[in-house]
Amino acid sequence: TGMFTYDPGFMSTASCQSTITYIDGDKGELLYRGYPIEQLATNCDFLETCYLLLNGELPNATEKEKFSSLVTKHTMVNEQMQFFLRGFRRDAHPMAIMTGLVGALSAFYHDSTDINNPEHREISAIRLIAKMPTLVAMAYKYTIGQPYMYPKNELSYAGNFLHMMFGVPCEDYKVSPVLERALDRIFILHADHEQNASTSTVRLCGSSGTNPFAAIAAGVACLWGPAHGGANEAALNMLYDIQKEGGVEKIGEFIKKVKDKNSNVKLMGFGHRVYKNYDPRAKLMQETCNEVLTELGLEKDPLFKLAKELEKIALEDEYFVSRKLYPNVDFYSGIVQRAIGIPVNLFTGIFALARTVGWIAQLNEMIGDPEYKIGRPRQLFTGSAPRDVKPIAQR
Ligand code: CMC
């Protein structure tokens, strides 16, 4: 059966045509709709970035205002959601909760979830972008036993998320502008990354004509894995482990384990299928890390020091150099999130929240493409030749 090209891991197969995100892996460049990520992260906020990814152009002031107020109007979730949430154990992983909650949204909007109807797609997009922070914060509050905080519409997208995460009803919560800006930047840096595993999952899932909430729930499930979005959690846990073993002095020993092919230990937050150079998001994340730690008076944070030292040693090591392994976005994002106060097991939930807009933009692009078909890969069959079933007594 030589009819099909065999390409495990899609190393050389373009699954679609896209106008959304461009990555030059050799140069370490990332562009959303033609705009360099560095410029977006410096000059725009997350909602402007969402507008850009969805519509192809940055909004002007009027468009931005309209889009923000539309998103703001949809930040609450149906009160029934909290009863669904209550079915989970308190120690459930937030990503287990998120896969359930996002899928469940489809049950609340079943009159407007026809993926082939552009109006339905538009309102579903707004609902998802608006409600993800509410759901992530609810999952967190539930696991720590605190009351849910309703969204506050006068706050920014990131500010409102901080309020829902860290506010309590008995006290006023003051959003720190530096933390708000840092979180907003985390959202921008994670907003899209062309045809990665979770985005391809969303496209494939949506190609069957399922509703947008179900397709995004599939993306959340895929993102959870440690080789993908789960790497931020794994990277921080790795740093904690090295720290526990003795910190900077133990880096050499750890690197030795990583290089040992029988050990199965990876340097988490390093390496990328497409980037064979420094991930531009990692650079921006390291900058943000500096800013946040300085703001909080944590410049001497031993974990940040350890991460920088680990990076330095790896980048000089022949193993990493020859394989072109550089830090990726997840290497520093955990340290920033931890400094903001976000618990480690919620890191991937934050990634899902931010990536939702990318998933939707990609899904909408696919559905709008006149050439789009259901995704249906073929296989090279390597199993048994035809044979006859024997009666059970003769098997
Ligand atoms: N630590 C040690 N060795 C590594 C690492 C690493 N982090 N990443 C790749 N390698 C080695 C790998 O063992 C292989 O060596 P050899 O050629 O001797 O067999 C070589 O480098 C090529 O790697 P690969 O696994 O064939 O590359 P891939 O494109 O299939 O995998 C990856 C890419 C991101 C899954 C992988 O680099 C990895 O597992 N990194 C750690 C997890 C991580 O940080 N993931 C986040 C990715 S960025 C954000 C996101 O997508 O969510």
From TrEMBL:
It comes from the Bacteria. The active site is at 272, 330. Pathway: Carbohydrate metabolism; tricarboxylic acid cycle; isocitrate from oxaloacetate: step 1/2. Gene3D superfamilies: 2.20.28.60, Citrate Synthase, domain 1 (1.10.580.10), Cytochrome P450-Terp, domain 2 (1.10.230.10). Pfam families: Citrate_synt (PF00285). It catalyses: oxaloacetate + acetyl-CoA + H2O = citrate + CoA + H(+). The keyword rRNA-binding does not apply. GO terms for cellular component: cytoplasm. Belongs to the citrate synthase family. This is Citrate synthase. It comes from Xenophilus arseniciresistens. The gene is gltA.
